[in-house]
Amino acid sequence: MEVEVKLRLADSASHQKLSDLLKPFHLITHLQENVFFDGASAELSSKLAILRLRFYNSDSRCVVSLKAKAVLVDGVSRVEEDEEDIDPAIGRACVAEPWRLGSVDSSRILRRVREEFQVADNNFVCLGGFRNVRTVFDWKDLKLELDETQYDFGTCYEIEGLQVCHFPVEEAAIVNKAMRRE
């Protein structure tokens, strides 16, 4: 099971400090564009589900993902996530004309959305999206993703750690240091 923990960073200075500390462990940097969709009658959002197309480095890759069955207990969210690659040209066509999501038969996830959430074939709507720069690091066998996310209303900074069940508590000082305002 994959476990993710996302921590919001205080500001751009904290983001830069953490980036500098992790620089020796840099793997790759992705320029991402995330676009979200729902059914015209809120078939997904009414069931706490999210449909997203994520484009990497312009149009070199497109991933469709469905996050569903969200449960929030004591401030901890658990979400089922299903992802698969689709042709970036198909993804761009769906962003331009969301109804096209209903006719993409090559995607197992989009078939699932139509069947499980009963979104009619031509009944998808675009909810908008955001862009971010994701820098990936391999630190002590832990995959860390440092994000700078551009929203219409401002910029958000966060770090995400995968497989944090193996994250040594004594090593958390690097993250904590970067999160503090100094």
Automatic annotation (TrEMBL):
Location of the CYTH domain: 1-182
Domain of life of the native organism: Eukaryota
Signal sequence, start to end: none
UniProt cross-references to InterPro entries, sorted A to Z: CYTH-like_dom_sf, CYTH_domain
Pfam families named among the record's database cross-references: CYTH
GO molecular function: pyrophosphatase activity
Name this protein carries in UniProt: CYTH domain-containing protein
